[in-house]
Amino acid sequence: MINVGEIKRGIIIELDGQLQQIIDFQHIKMGRGSAQVRMKFRNVRTGQITERSFQATEKFQRVRLDHRTVQFLYSDGDQYLFMDTESFDQIALTKDQLGDAVNYLKDGLTMELLSYNDQPIGVELPITVDLRIEHTEPGFKGDTATGGTKPATLETGLVVQVPLFVNQGETIRVDTRTGTYLERVG
Fold first, then answer.
1. Tens-place pLDDT, residues 5-54
2. Calpha distance 18→182 (Å, rounded)
3. Cβ(59)–Cβ(38) under 8 Å?
4. Ordered structural domains, the chain, with CATH
5. pTM of the entire structure?
């Protein structure tokens, strides 16, 4: 069992017989009442997003998941194919199962495949991913590291805010937990 104080983004719990991944949560302290927690979930199997409030004393059933190291191969429409790095089996996941992870998938990326009762349900990305900038407006002389930011479209289609001195064609490191620019890479 897991109590409200141990909740983190990304963990998977069982709620009403369904596997739910916590996307976001917020603690709310009522004036005279007890504290509550407002949580946003993504149904692991269907991809449906819901929000619910719970009392701070509520406990949830933590789901035990199997982890296997896989490598992303390619996408074909709504299917994303991965290869188990030990058995070389190929596993297909849908866009709904992957959620926001599709924004960080590039050929050859290694990550953890999450399975429940031998059924693949999603992936756990590395904390950072290096992606190439496909399009951004050019920087101008005088732009500094402490200046403003501009949008940049990455090779996966993800759009992030980058400093003005970063240019098209460069590779940047992105935090997969927050979707934010961290630094330029070589």
1. 788 877 888 888 888 888 888 888 877 777 888 989 888 877 788 999 88
2. 35
3. no
4. 2-62 (2.30.30.30), 66-124 (2.40.50.140), 128-185 (2.40.50.140)
5. 0.72
